[in-house]
Amino acid sequence: MNEQKNIKPDSNTPPPAGGFGVKRIAIFGSTGSIGTQALEVIAANPTVFSAEVLTAHNNDELLVQQALKFNPNVVVIGDEKKYLKVKAALASTNIKVFTSEKALEEVAGMDCYDVMLAAIVGFAGLKPTLKAISNGKAIALANKETLVVAGDMVMRKAVENRVPIIPVDSEHSAIFQCLVGETRNKIEKVILTASGGPFLGRKPNYLVNVKREHALQHPNWTMGAKITIDSATLMNKGLEMIEAKWLFNLKPGQIQVVIHPQSIIHSMVQFEDGSIKAQLGLPDMKLPIQYAFGFPKRIANQFPRYDFKKINTLSFEEPDVKTFRNLGLAMEALNKGGNLPCIMNAANEIAVYAFLHNRINFLDMTDLIEKTMQNIPFIEKPTLEEYFESDGEARSFAADIISL
Ligand code: NDP
Ligand code: MG
Predict the structure, then answer these.
(1) Which ligand places an atom closest to the C-alpha of 222?
(2) C-alpha to C-alpha distance for 286 and 10, rounded to whole angstroms
(3) Ion ligand 2 — residues with CB < 5 Å
(4) CA atoms within 13 A on the CB side of 166
């Protein structure tokens, strides 16, 4: 199948990583910020990677463009109303076209790929990722909500199926890179860096008036809308604390957050002897994506390099959890565990959706999440079904409050 690819290797491309042929990538969420950057990585390394599965939710036009360029085995368009359009646009190819939420899981269960890039946003990414794990496929994980909602299940299944979960989130990729060669050494703590978002240093009397356009302007990263709002509220860092707990098997007290506005140090690990390792680089998600795809090999590239002479100040400060209360709520969920992170995540997804649709203001998001966390029954050791139920209950509860 690989010889059918439209993208042909050129003489400047490096030899395959590890010499085992082309790694076949399934990009779940190919039309998003992470998905499109992943395709850039694949296009730049056609002898190393191929795109075998592409999925979109609504954006049929971009999905078709991507499919024509990368000639995958399968595409999935989530929105069933767009199925016939996609099918017609790809009629002259051998690409299989599927639709519906269920199809995402079915395709995750196929054998036409080696690595799933989990780049769907939100809770919707959980089921296909679980399916890929039980199908024995390696996961390059961007979708942090998967671990926030059901991290215990996901990690347990990964161990049972001997499936590696390689983080794509830049902070977790940094920690992962710091841990290479350190398997026998105990982690004292990890230090997650946070840019602080567009409202760093602002107080509630300012935040009460900010509008979506303002909140969507991130100083250092260009990302999808949901994570950009999460970065502005600092919920993103809270989700990342929970993500770190599961990925690296940490206790809540071992996870520290520090504001680092330049986003050059992507995170750090402090070991038992007090030594701290950090991973640095310019903020560019293509780097952690490429690292996850190529692991354990690093792949040469022409991305711009960090120059100490140009950015010579790296600064650090404490997060303001009194103003950015979402981070405090996430710490509470991290400490209490059970289904509380799942409830918090569901309420946050509703809150961000409502804010993006100008239905509630910036600070209302926190109130909505807090009320939902207080009202949905706590379960200490939920089953997978109970996680799904808690997610549904929390969504309805939050949506009712704001009459969505
Ligand atoms: P985007 O919103 O840019 O893209 C989301 C992708 O998921 C799109 O392909 C979208 O399809 C698809 N999608 C959306 N909703 C659904 C659904 N209900 N079912 C199936 N597919 C759906 O998000 P990002 O790329 O920014 O983020 C993806 C994930 O990666 C998130 O979990 C985020 O937290 C994480 N991440 C992102 C980073 C970044 O720099 N962007 C950095 C670190 C982590 P369509 O385009 O058709 O709507
Ligand atoms: Mg991150």
Answers:
(1) 1
(2) 21
(3) 169-171
(4) 20
Inform me whether the pLDDT recorded for 3 exceeds 70.
no
Please say whether the beta carbons of 152 and 342 come within 8 A: no
pLDDT in tens, 120-132: 999 999 999 999 9
> Is there a contact between 207 and 199 (Cβ–Cβ < 8 Å)?
yes
Residues with CB under 6 A from ligand 1: 29-35, 56-59, 78, 119-121, 124, 142-145, 169, 221, 223-227, 285
Q: Sign of torsion, CA 161 166 172 177?
A: positive
Peptide bond into 198 cis (omega under 30): no
DSSP 7: S
Please identify, by atom number, the ligand 1 atom nearest to the C-alpha of residue 55. 9
The label of the residue with tokens 């100040």 reads 313
Please name the helix (run of DSSP H) or strand (run of DSSP E) that holds residue 50, with its range, or none: strand 49-56
Q: How many residues does the chain have?
A: 404
Written as six digits, the tokens of 383 are 């089953």
pLDDT of residue 20: 55
Helix axes 145-160, 340-356, angle to 10 degrees: 140
The alpha carbons of the chain give a radius of gyration, in whole angstroms, of: 21
Residues 323, 203 contacting (CB under 8 angstroms):
yes
- Which residue has tokens 């105990």? 186
Residue 10: what pLDDT? Answer: 34
Order of all β-strands in the sheet with 49-56: 96-99, 74-77, 49-56, 23-28, 115-118, 138-141, 165-167
Give the CB-side neighbour count of residue 250, counting CA atoms within 13 A.
27
What are residue 140's DSSP bridge partners? 117, 166
